[in-house]
Amino acid sequence: xxxxxxxxxxxxxxxxxxxxxxxxxxxxxxxxxxxxxxxxxxxxxxxxxxxxxxxxxxxxxxxxxxxxxxxxxxxxxxxxxxxxxxxxxxxxxxxxxxxxxxxxxxxxxxxxxxxxxxxxxxxxxxxxxxxxxxxxxxxxxxxxxxxxxxxxxxxxxxxxxxxxxxxxxxxxxxxxxxxxxxxxxxxxxxxxxxxxxxxxxxxxxxxxxxxxxxxxxxxxxxxxxxxxxxxxxxxxxxxxxxxxxxxxxxxxxxxxxxxxxxxxxxxxxxxxxxxxxxxxxxxxxxxxxxxx
Length: 292
What we know:
Blueprint: H1 3-31, E1 34-41, E2 50-55, E3 61-62, H2 67-79, E4 84-87, E5 94-95, E6 100-101, H3 104-111, E7 120-122, H4 126-130, H5 133-138, H6 144-151, E8 155-156, E9 160-164, E10 169-173, E11 180-182, E12 185-187, H7 192-196, E13 205-208, E14 222-227, E15 255-259, E16 262-266, E17 273-274, E18 284-291
Parallel strand pairs: 1-18, 2-4, 4-7, 5-17, 7-8, 10-13, 13-14, 14-16
Antiparallel strand pairs: 2-18, 3-6, 9-10, 11-12, 15-16
């Protein structure tokens, strides 16, 4: 190899690295927004076909996810004409590189502009509990994020199941699994058995659970589990992520997972955690069409 060819190669590698850094830190997390669609077919689905739009992991904070970005997400959601809009938690910024905080009191009214035939519902995520220092001291609610969402007209389900008669389903919302820090570890406020005990007939159950790690414990009685939290790993190469915030690694990192006749869809979400970077895992509005 000649000196000239070596320098050319070095320059090419340097430029490629700079482009990847620019793309991963600024273009993909701040400018891209896709609609990712999944179709779930279940023989035991007795309700009419249902189109669900999911917003997960907003992590609001300038410059990546400001009010303008949230409005863009809401417009994209309303364009898919969903029967149900579900917000899967983590409205709080998830990294320390926020130039200007965007408070939940500003975000909640924007999310309330989502439109769906059967309504808009939410659960809380781990960052929504971690960011509420008063709730941390109490070891539980009330939670400031839940209060802001409910004030804006969005129902927040905390270990609750509701019968949506017009949709022909039960909608269940699980409380967060990593909510409160005690004795050096994160403890959950989730109560899966108590939540499902509220289901009183044979209609299909759709379960909202911020972290997908609950999925192995979800009984076959639940038709569909919807989660966020992982952001698809934020960096995803050829369907694999080097770092996933789950004890199951890439098993529940992203997308539609079917295990033992049970269905899980994990949204890639909107914002970022730890670092404001996305590469191969573009921010998304997730749309699930479930039918028999």
